[in-house]
Structure prediction request, 403 residues.
Amino acid sequence: MTTNGNTTPEEGTLLWARPDGEGGAGSIEPLRAAVREFKLAVHCCGYAELPELIRTRRCELVGVEVGADAEAAAALIKRLHERLPALTIFAASDDPGVSLLRTLLEAGATDVLSLPLGSQELHKALIKFSQVRTKAGAAQAAGTVLTVVGVRGGLGATTLAVNLAARFHGTLEAETALVDLDLQRGDVAAFLNLTPVNSLAALANATGPVDEIFLAGTLTRHPSGLFLLPAPSEIEEADAIGHNEVEVALRLLRVQFRFIVVDTARTISGPSLAAFEQSDRILALTDLSVPGVRAARRIVELLDRLSIPRERVDLIVTHAIPGPVSLADAARAIGKEVFHVLPRDEQAAGGAMNAGSPLAAPREAGLATAIGELADKLAGRGATTKAKRGHLLQRMFTRETRP
Ligand SMILES: Nc1ncnc2c1ncn2[C@@H]1O[C@H](COP(=O)(O)OP(=O)(O)OP(=O)(O)O)[C@@H](O)[C@H]1O
Ligand SMILES: [Mg+2]
Prediction:
């Protein structure tokens, strides 16, 4: 939910794109008035800015005004539709001709409106959009994406991601998926003792549409009911997976799952950036060593440069590796309050990793207890874990035994 400069809470943004260098046909006031009822804000931009804005604003609805160059509009719509099949795209044109209408619809426009915009026509299109949104499950509040990033290697990021997901799924009974974005060295499957058949690489090699059914085929189900979107088994497959594949995967997972926990690699690349952009919370895991604190500061600065609001970043400190910096000094140097502290617990962490199962029963002051408390904090106390989602997935995996 965004608060769009004023006090009205908006549930999303309608991005309205006009041809670069053209003024656009008339006022967008009717648009603003029409979308208010649907709890949407309107943001106007040029064609060139649109793809980047969709990425950072996470919007489900865009409008493309057709200018003098109708082909440019159709090409933009086609590109958006191919990349984000779930996106609703309104085209708007002052040419009522059937041939243009057909071109725009074939390119992937959901609806074609006439310019100048009329309130009745807009209203009708928005009602249709909100019905589709309800059906897609987004109206049940889309799932929460949490990305774990170790500010340097070996701090326990994967241990944290796996156990957070296990806690969300197990204790909070929320449909949860884990995504392994450590594409070259991903070990989440090993942590869970799974041998996946498919991976994120399938998205890169897809020849047809990448929709929720396709995505379901790339997931591996843990006997507990937790789902994993694994890293490729072959190292060389990693290169094919870029920003777009991860963005599409996370958007689709968001509709199916209440929580999506993403583990990332120690080096930051396109796929991790896509995850940061799509995340509701980014858990930056640091130790209290001097290099650790410096690395954490660099990550926070990178997220600033990506225009990711600092409120979305949670600083987690681990004592897995001892360090001399105090919590207060670390917070000051990094520019974030410490959200949660994890104890050093070699026995639990090592035991779980090698047993291929999430941490054993929590012991007092142990790692499992600390991660459990963190999961509860993240889910919000008395978390609304909501009605189960992922019906499609449950149907597709019914032949497997439930625990
Ligand atoms: N809180 C902890 N206390 C002690 N040891 C821990 C703790 N958390 C993780 N470990 C251990 O540290 C090692 C690295 O853990 P893990 O693989 O989770 O880290 P990572 O940050 O994902 O590493 P990488 O950068 O290689 O992906 C493992 O041996 C793990 O058991
Ligand atoms: Mg790891």
